[in-house]
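Follow-up to my post from last week.
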Amino acid sequence: MQTTPFAAELKNISVTYGVKAAAVHAVKGVSLEVRRGELLLLMGPSGSGKSTLLQVLGCIRTATEGSVLIDGVSIDGLNANQLSRLRCERIGFVFQHYNLLPSLRAWENVALTLELRGESGTPIEDASRAILERLGLEHRADAYPQELSGGEKQRVAIARAVVGGPDIILADEPTAALDSASGAEVAKLLANIAHEDGCSVVVVTHDARISGIADRLAYLDDGAILWVRKNIHLQDKSLRESGIHDIEDHGRNGLDASFIRRAAHTG
Amino acid sequence: MVHPSPLTGVLNGRWKGLVAWRSSIAFRLAWRNITRDYVRLAIAIIGVGFAVLLMMVQSGLLIGFATTSSSLVDRANADFWIVPRGAKDVDQAGQILERQKYLALGVQGVDSVDSLVIRFAEWKRPAGGTESVIVVGIDTVRPVLEPWNFIAGSTSDLSSANGIVIDELYSQKLGVSRLGETVEIMNRRARVVGITSRIRTFTQSPYVFTSLKNAKILTGLPDDETTYLLVRAQPGTDLGQLKAALQEALPSSDVWTARGFSWQTRIHWLVTTGAGAALLIAAILGIVVGLVIVSQTLYSATVERIHEYATIRAMGASNRFLKAIILRQSLLSGTAGYVIGAAVAIAVAWFADKSSATLSLPPWLVVLMAVITLAMCLGASLISIRKVLNVDAASVFK
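User reply:
Got it. Predicted complex:
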């Protein structure tokens, strides 16, 4: 039963690599909520901590400080196997380079998710083929990844991520390796998953096609979230173009919210 | 819906569990991982096959030599062997006085006592040259030990004067080509009255069976001496107590149970001569070779696919799931290697059966080798498993 409106919450998350003089602060005191059924974008320059934040959200990397809640439950104290179990049941991943297993056919790559959850036999093949059919890939279900186009591979990867009915999908640059048409298709697919299936989708991207259909944008720089806002169109790369809608105050990240508003209105 | 695990499948329906296991994605992944690279697969299978072949042949030789060395003791129908003091094996002993037979017969619980002569002698080849043989002199009337696997003649033919029985394996070595042929042993004539099949000797000096009387003549043993006395106990007698009583009655000789003297003979030849150690070392070497080859091929395959394992880990695979993939790969190639290695070993044993070499592959040895191969494959997986369990799932984001 869902008792919280958030699929996931990051509370004052910091991630530091190395020690003392060699320490690198990849993420600094970030707090962020992932709402149920929304498409949330994480944007920012290279090295801003987007991927690290995604890894923390995906329970793959442990934060140096702060806490992570998945469906309102803190993951603090969970061991590696428990975190694996959590990912298996609650989180789906879509990678930039698809990361499909070349030894498995398309439907088998999808079925792997279900087998990791303890299911087996004919039902997992049926479910895998069904979801590929939904994504328009029923005729490619028996193909190996090396026989698929980039767009088809990414759709198989998305099928693999959603087949288990996760609460959250985490996508790391899902359209970066795709051509224009395939990228648009994948972007639309992710939006549908969020809006129609009620699954929260968090995407790290620079792709304006996704930003156009996202529910919220979060901008990171130097390990901190500078701002979070709704429905901002960034195709003209100007904060002024779309006007200011609901800018969320991220003063807790150490920034003055009024500064953000002033910056948005100035050239 | 969750299907039964393989173990539950065995309990609730053997084939249902096996089918579910074999059709699982993990199995498919393991199978295709190892079959995708045919060269690497071939190397692994050949490595295991060679290891299995080496282990089985060496172990088979070890067992064969052991059983061959004690064959006379094992074939005799006796409960105890009275042997010259300090005798270590059945082929090499001194002599004891025949009258000890009567001392033994006087011990309560003894049913019968029979003499047996076993001594080395010199065989003169018809074409020239000599060969060392072991003359075995038996009681032809009521034999407690007699030749086996006759292909011509019988034990009763040994009652004829100078009659001897040899084995066909050594007929060429001894220069004998037919039944009835006259030969010379220790400058005395003997006549081949019987031929057996596959009675081998550990020392490669062939056994020559003959009557007790003839054996003493051929080997120059005095009439009042013999090599061994074989004792049969009366039914229901406590053998432990009887052994002690015999030893007390015959202090100048050693009293062994048949089983004890059999093991003593085996241990003497295999340990004292170093033959056993050499065979055992070769068998262990086989295990090491198999372990290294499988370990190396599996590890290189694992490293090559480490990104895939990182992906599976990121997806939420447990340690158990990851281990199972590696173990399946190891066991699949190990099974194929075992089948091939065992088949070749059985073929080698079949050919060896036609020679004087002794290679024995009893069913329990075949099963034992399967278990050792399984353990070897599991051991070879450890390094790869460690690599996979330590994979950084975050690496898939790079």
